[in-house]
Amino acid sequence: MTPTTSNPAFRYPQKTLDRAARAVRCAPFRLKFYATMLNQSVALSAVAGTAGIRNQYSRQSLSELAAEGELLWLIQVGLLRREVDGQGLTDSFRLTPLGRQLVQHWQAVGGFGKAKFRDRLLNAINRWLRLPF
Question: What does the pLDDT look like over 18-75, one tens digit per residue?
Fold first, then answer.
């Protein structure tokens, strides 16, 4: 697989960057999960259950349904995309250009921080309403 690089000349609106960063802070995944996707796709089976903890991708064991729900939210926010092969969609996920840009920034600064109450509240409202704000 050929890694793609994000176009540094493209600038995302600050609201988009804030919403994406908030979603990541509220997600149960570690930076290693996102950093791995800089070079390769990550399968759902590598994230769900004890494999997620063993691979140091998640902070807690997640059922397959819960893991997929979290990943689908990160797709809606614009950080991830499902990988496609010749047969169609797979159970693997990759970073979007927005995701690449943010992960590279977080690697440079040493992480994405911890979610505050306000982050969790806004993320929950956005997820519940599914509105892109």
Answer: 999 999 999 999 999 999 999 999 999 999 999 999 999 999 999 999 999 999 999 9
Report how far residue 80's alpha carbon sits from residue 72's, in angstroms, rounded to the nearest whole number. 8
Q: Is 38 exposed, middle or buried (0-12, 13-18, 19+ CB in 10 A)?
A: middle
| Domain count along the chain | 1
If DSSP states are collapsed to H, E and C, what string results for 94-116?
EECHHHHHHHHHHHHHCCCCCCC
* pTM of this structure: 0.85
| Residue 3 scores a pLDDT above 70 | no
**What is the domain-level CATH number for residue 27?**
1.10.10.10
In this structure, is residue 131 part of a structural domain?
no
In a domain, 68, yes or no: yes
